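Bumping with the actual sequence this time:
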Amino acid sequence: MTHSIATSGSGVVFTYVGPSIATVSPLFGPPAGGTSVRLTGSGFTGTTRVLFGSVPAQSFKVDSDGQITTVSPPYAGVQEFDISVTTPVGTSKPPPNDQQFDYGPGITNNSSSGLTPNTGPWNGGTSVTIQGINFGSSPSVTFNGVAGQVTSISDTKIVVTTPPRTGSMTGNQIAPVVVTTSGGQSDPGPTFTYTPPPAPTVTGLRPSSGPVTGTTTVVITGTNFIPTSGTQVTVSFGGKTTVGQVLSATSITCVVPANPVAGPVDVQVTALGGQSAVTAADKYTYTP
């Protein structure tokens, strides 16, 4: 905060710089209060008051012009509070929105370091331990808006099983993690990284040849045959496509499409993880 005063007739402007809060750490604490909170910023020299909303801090100590250590008051009916600092020069404006002190649920450090592990496969099923505070007795946890299955609860720890990822399966997906309780929602920040489904591979065909008229039933072996829809994937014989029925993650059956030209072609499978790469093992030979 600044105050500018011009002296009469001099044209000289004196600027007085008031207090300003840049960061609040930690960002949450229990409803009983008593959390030691460090404020960083500037202009703290001579601080006369620290408020959490309209409630005075239990205590505060000016460590330097850029840091105050204060103690949170008890919960007073509001989940989130802006913290303000008052000095003889003035009162600080509210800190940035992501620096409010929170009496609702909070994940440790408001970051992914509060999740163990913080990465897992696309199809879910990862057991994640969330460390934090104010979780209560019946929290819910969402990953990118999709609910996980909570299996264990305490006021400072939740164990939850991740749901499958949603949307595009290309590349890693960064999923925001939010804990919701009767006291509100945890602040944004923590994320869980979903890895994509693996690409399929083709390791063999049986039989590996047939007439150019097609109609031959072929069994394709390989890996990561994850259906794109129901039990189906797409199979390409030299660019001519057909539908493959997934028998297992390592086996597909399909009917070979016709091809007007005799000779070898590459067989590629498009599954949930993308299209298989061309290899020496994926050859099918059309015969006259």
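The tokens above came from a reply further down the thread. The chain has three domains: 2-102, 106-194, 201-287.
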